[in-house]
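From the pipeline queue, job 12 of 40. The input is one protein chain; the requested action is below.

Action: predict structure.
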Amino acid sequence: MADARQVPEGWGTFPSPPPPVRPELEIELLDQCIHCGFCIQACPTYRELGVETASPRGRLQMMKAVAEGQLAPDAGFADEMNLCLGCRACESACPSGVHYGQALEQARALAAQTAPPHLARRLTLRLAFRWLLPHGGRLRAGVALLRLAQRTGLLRPVAALLPRHWREMTAALPPAPGRAEHRQVSAALAAAAQPAAAEGPTVGFFRGCIQDALFAGTNAATAHLLRAAGCRVVAPPPHGAGPAGAAQTCCGALAAHGGDREYARELARRNIAAFEALGCDYVVNNAGGCGAMLREYGHLLHDDPAWAERAARFAAGVRDVSELLASQGLPALGPLPWRVTYQDSCHLHHGQRVKSQPRQLLQQVPGLTYVELKNADRCCGSAGIYNLTHPEMAGALLDEKMENATATQAEVIVTSNPGCLLQMRLGVQRAGLADRVRVLHLVDLLEAARIAAGES
């Protein structure tokens, strides 16, 4: 199968040895695929490119060939794995229950070892995934610099030096929160930690990294809503703000998606230990990507004897905020005379299978006109950092999304993930709708309705 290796004349040729078998890829996951093709039309990259290797089925076949030693996990293999958005729409379409997301993470981890990216990119990813995101203080310092640049007007000339897609993303950033907003989160969590008047569950709040640093107001609103719904809310301090072993940190999703699976496992252990100490009934979060990763901790640590059972127990208790609010019941809501549509977070819809609850909550807001978005569960192109690493593909998907969003004539686009929020803000800007359309997190809209009802 490999190219023949040339030897001195007269000796003939003999085949090169096949690549080694790769136990890093779980053959049990790959054997679940029956090659039926239901996943193909659910896949964004296949719809755009129309080639088998850009489909989930094609990628799974490549993974199996690597696992069995028939194909080398070289740069070409890495490119095909990284072209995937990891949106997991194929999982919703698959009749065989293939856990494609788990297989993809294993394949990317292997590719990162055998065909690592260029040094500059490797160092950049390591800096982001290991040095920045897990450390709340460093991340907040970065956001403080962003706030200063926004308020002084320095952001625009700095952004002018960046590639076009970075410039566009920079312009779509929301106003960075300051100390006052972060104090509001602390105050909201302190109030929500008091015993609830009504008997309800005690929930541990996972604050996230980007979500906590850039969307602090959404975290404060989450605490207010859960408290108003009868929950007692407790939260381990963020990393750097509490004793070692008691602090929560980054969920590890971006590290796992980027091939740094071992570091993701380390972050998982920290989070499990931090929330175990609280004795909460559920671990609740408000970011679709974080929630999907937290629910994967059971598989991520399934081969670790010291953590497997603890990880499975933790993962079974993870809930998206929309699930808890739908089951507990919303507090009194005031009218919002808005025309609204909803864009699914891929990892909330396909990864966590939370589909109806956000829509149910929106339809309970008085005065709100809800319009369903065509292909709402198709990826907007954010996909972690995909819109930065593959801007052309991400842009094509965003243009399709905005065409459907514009057709709804909605004045508010609602979603449930920080990456989706930023991507949809970019889409609104690119479509020339910034003066007419807002992008809001589901929690922020519900909090606005709660305040409209006169709730404190």
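Job complete. The two ends are 70 Å apart (CA to CA).
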